[in-house]
Amino acid sequence: MEGTYIKLKVHPGSKREEAIRKAPDSFELWVKAPAEQGRANAAALALLAGELKVPRGKIRLVKGAQSPAKIVLLLP
After folding, report:
1. Partner of 28 at 20 to 30 A CA spacing, among 1, 47, 51, 66?
2. Which three-class secondary structure state does DSSP give residue 44?
């Protein structure tokens, strides 16, 4: 697939919603949503979309659905 791969480290169940860019292709995210039933994943992708100023539909979770370390694909 074409696009840009981005590495994420997600901290679910946090008291804050924050995204910090660690490198051009790496982010560390803190989300309030708990890590159950995909809620933290959805919150992390929405936070990343807002940070990158792209529509949420342009970001796909590729790897790490049940792990704090995730890889997402940013579609063109």
Report:
1. 1
2. helix
For 1-21, what is the mean pLDDT? 95
By DSSP bridging, strand 18-23 and strand 69-74 are unpaired
What domain range is 69 assigned to?
Answer: 4-74
The answer, as to whether pTM is greater than 0.85, is: yes
Confidence band for 2, pLDDT divided at 50, 70 and 90? confident
Domain count, the chain: 1
Q: The CATH number of the domain where 46 resides is what? A: 3.30.1200.10
Percent of the chain whose predicted confidence (pLDDT) is above 90: 97
The answer to whether the beta carbons of residues 40 and 33 sit under 8 Å apart is: yes
What tokens appear for 62 in the block? 């590729």
Partners of 11 in the β-ladder: 30
